[in-house]
């Protein structure tokens, strides 16, 4: 499987698996088989977060690490410091370090490979945040640090401060990115950062590593193509109020028929072929869905096909 470079000593496969629902619906045996299959077919990057399932996701994943002995086969991406339920940011030194320590405890590991801040608080100067992240690297708790839901301008500001002060830089960014357009207002969470022309332009020019979450638009196009009703209010709120998404749905269905590939595979191929240094971060619940994701990895869209999906 193709990879993108995160640091000089770290590369991740272009299909990442998010284990957000680990332990919610499947038995431990089923969860373990799911992770094993992902590795067997060539994947190497697993994404988790303290927010997921009140820490149970980390505990299930930690038990898999203990039983499998496959720590050296995985690039592990952890996330912490999500806002609390009231919306208050959790980016103090105590909260950043506390979430890192709690993750390692539940994962039964000495370190993660990449640790990301799950949210930003633009009222806090980067001079308060970056030294704390640097301490996680210097103490050996993580090999590298990055962010989720930060704007490009904040990443630039943070890395300028890190460079001027000899600190560990941010090396990767998770951002809401798919063929379906949305906005933070539409998601109902203004701390979400969604791909737009400004963000896209910066990522394309700098080739800063992107981990595209919601890269299948929460199944929006896939369910519509299958003729299934979209019952999750969040999915409708995110995507359905934008007429452009209805036009993009028509185009992705037409291209799906022409190429003889699934809409799901096309969603994955879109983010991997759109000119960025990008990995698709995917959350799937069935092995068949995982196979569709890998089909998208192998599908190389032409500039003309990408332009058609974007503009018609």
Give a quick precis of the structure:
This protein has helices at 28-40, 56-68, 93-107, 126-138, 152-164, 184-187, 197-206, 220-225, 233-240, 243-259, 263-273, 287-297, 303-311, and strands spanning 3-7, 10-13, 15-18, 45-47, 75-80, 112-117, 142-148, 170-176, 210-213, 278-282. It is an alpha/beta fold.
Could you describe the 3D structure shown?
The protein has helices at residues 28-40, 56-68, 93-107, 126-138, 152-164, 184-187, 197-206, 220-225, 233-240, 243-259, 263-273, 287-297, 303-311, and strands at residues 3-7, 10-13, 15-18, 45-47, 75-80, 112-117, 142-148, 170-176, 210-213, 278-282. By secondary structure, the protein is of the alpha/beta class. The strands form two sheets. Strands 3-4-5-6-7-8-9-10 form an eight-stranded parallel β-barrel, surrounded by five helices. It is globular. This is Aldo/keto reductase. It comes from Candidatus Pullichristensenella excrementigallinarum. Keywords: Oxidoreductase.
What share of the residues does DSSP label as strand, in percent?
A: 15-25%
Strand order of the largest sheet: 3-4-5-6-7-8-9-10
Mean pLDDT value: 94
Total helical segments: 13
**SS-derived structural category:** alpha/beta
- What would you report as the Rg, rounded to the nearest angstrom? 19 Å
Give me the strand/helix succession. EEEHEHEHEHEHEHHEHHHHEHH
Helical residues, percent: 40-55%
Number of strands: 10
Shape: globular
Ends distance: 30 Å
Tell me the major beta sheet.
8 strands, parallel, barrel
The residue ranges in which pLDDT falls below 50 over 5 or more consecutive positions are none
């Amino acid at each position: 499987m193709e990879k993108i470079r995160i640091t000089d000593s770290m590369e991740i496969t272009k299909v990442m698996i998010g284990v957000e629902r680990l332990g919610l619906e499947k038995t431990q045996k089923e969860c373990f088989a799911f992770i094993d299959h992902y590795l067997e077919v060539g994947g190497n990057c697993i994404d988790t977060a303290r927010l997921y399932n009140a820490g149970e996701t980390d505990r299930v994943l930690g038990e898999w690490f203990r039983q499998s002995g496959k720590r050296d086969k995985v690039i592990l991406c952890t996330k912490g410091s999500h806002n609390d339920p009231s919306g208050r940011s959790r980016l103090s030194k105590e909260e950043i370090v506390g979430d890192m320590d709690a993750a390692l405890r539940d994962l039964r590991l000495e370190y993660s490979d990449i640790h990301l801040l799950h949210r930003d608080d633009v009222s806090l100067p980067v001079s308060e945040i970056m030294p704390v992240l640097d301490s996680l690297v210097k103490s050996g708790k993580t090999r590298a640090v990055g962010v989720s839901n930060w704007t490009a301008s904040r990443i630039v500001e943070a890395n300028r401060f890190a460079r001027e002060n000899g600190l560990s830089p941010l090396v990767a960014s998770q951002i809401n990115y798919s063929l379906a357009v949305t906005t933070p207002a539409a998601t109902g969470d203004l701390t979400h950062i969604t791909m737009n022309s400004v963000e896209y332009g910066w990522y394309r020019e700098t080739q800063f590593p992107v981990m595209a979450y919601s890269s299948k638009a929460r199944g929006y196009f896939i369910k519509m193509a299958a003729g299934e009703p979209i019952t999750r209010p969040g999915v409708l709120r995110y995507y359905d109020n934008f007429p452009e998404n209805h036009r993009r749905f028509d185009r992705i269905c037409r291209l799906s028929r022409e190429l003889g590939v699934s809409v799901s595979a096309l969603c994955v191929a879109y983010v991997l072929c759109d000119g960025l240094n990008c990995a698709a971060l995917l959350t799937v619940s069935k092995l068949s869905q995982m196979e569709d994701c890998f089909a998208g990895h192998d599908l190389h869209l032409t500039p003309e096909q990408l332009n058609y999906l974007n503009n018609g």
